[in-house]
Design goal:
This protein has about 375 residues and is of the alpha/beta class. It contains 12 helices and 11 strands.
């Protein structure tokens, strides 16, 4: 039977005290990580999965007789890169194109972003040196369409995967030649259609987006496109067909043109539609807002005009919004009306909304823009 000497007993006592201190620090790190994950709406980190909560093994014999097992040192304070990768990925999603390279150079974890961006930019032949804001968080597909050969598609696909991971997207402004390239683009797209010439090309683009299960973060149908829908039933039928199938999250129509009745009558069938931009109250005629299950945001370009008193038009909009799921509203109000109103028109309109259960969300630099949300 071996009896530990007094020095061994003191050694064991010191080891136990260190273990308790380490355990306390590890628990503190775990709690901070879980708090950050909750802020990002991510499940808290389970204790059993934490790499920080494994305690060192204490020796049972005198250190002069038996070697102490090696235990990795625990840092006195967590570093930025010691956070879970899910949190690091979320952080990069909020970084602008002006700052993404600085982040990638400062934090080793993000090095893959700058490398993928550099490899992608080298493929392009531009009139001026490329800037990160040209590629992050989105890039325009049209300028690169004629410059990327088949051997370079893997580089495009790698950078597209990086963008998809961090909420980025690609912008398409012309359907011509896009179908074959679509599978190499990010998961999310922004599509702007204006002076398109061929119905088949547009139909094929929408079909390819649907087959590839891409998300359209924003679809903008410009004046020329809506004019074709007005004059050609084939364009109109093709448009309504794909509006009802594609996963469109934001939809914008021309500012100075009436939307065809057939399109207005089926907007409640657009899946995932959460933000709708319309010209004025007249454009809401025939739109079943109460049946738009996912619509939470509405933008009205021109709420007030000279044909009716402002308070009447605001009340009409409030009546339309009753029974809908819309929680946020953005309206533009013109300057003027000083002769008929005792205060600024924007303040006058905001006061009416305030009396009816809405509040101004935030002050805007544009003095004609008013952002509101339900109380």
């Amino acid at each position: 039977m071996t009896t530990n000497c007094s020095s061994c007993q003191r050694h064991d006592l010191a080891i136990k005290e260190l273990q308790l201190t380490i355990q306390s620090l590890q628990q503190q790190i775990h709690d901070e990580f879980s708090s950050l994950r909750r802020l990002l709406q991510i499940q808290p980190l389970p204790i059993t999965d934490s790499a920080f909560l494994s305690l060192p093994v204490s020796p049972t014999a005198c250190p002069s007789m038996e070697p102490v097992p090696y235990t990795p040192a625990v840092p006195s304070r967590p570093t930025f890169e010691s956070m879970p990768h899910e949190i690091l990925d979320q952080i990069a999603s909020f970084v602008s194109g002006r700052d993404i390279l600085q982040l990638s150079h400062a934090v080793r974890h993000y090095k893959y972003i700058s490398k993928a961006m550099f490899d992608f930019a080298r493929l392009l032949i531009l009139n001026s040196p490329p800037s990160p804001v040209d590629f992050w968080p989105c890039f325009n597909v049209r300028p690169i369409l004629d410059q990327i050969s088949e051997e370079h598609l893997s580089i495009l696909q790698t950078y597209s995967a990086v963008l998809s991971k961090h909420g980025g997207y690609a912008r398409i402004v012309d359907p011509d030649g896009m179908v074959d390239l679509l599978c190499h683009l990010p998961k999310s797209l922004e599509v702007l259609l204006g002076n398109v010439q061929r119905l088949n090309n547009t139909d094929n683009l929408f079909s390819a987006i649907f087959q590839a299960k891409k998300n359209i973060t924003k679809l903008t149908l410009d004046v020329e496109y809506i004019s074709r829908c007005d004059s050609d039933p084939a364009w109109l039928n093709m448009t309504t067909k794909w509006l009802a199938k594609l996963r469109i999250y934001e939809l914008e129509f021309p500012r100075y043109m009436i939307i065809p009745t057939q399109i207005r009558g089926m907007l409640h069938l657009v899946p995932n539609l959460s933000l709708l931009h319309l010209r004025n109250l007249e454009a809401l005629s025939g739109v079943a807002l109460s049946e738009c299950k996912s619509l939470r945001n509405l933008s009205i370009l021109s709420l007030v005009d000279a044909t009716e008193r402002p308070e009447v038009l605001v009340q009409q909009l409030l009546d339309i919004l009753k029974g809908t799921r819309i929680q946020q509203l953005q309206v533009h109000v013109p300057k003027g009306f000083r002769k008929v109103l005792p205060c600024d028109l924007k303040d006058f309109v905001a006061a009416i909304f305030l009396e009816n259960g809405w509040r101004e969300q935030q002050k805007q630099y544009d003095d004609r823009q008013l952002r509101l949300c339900r109380k």
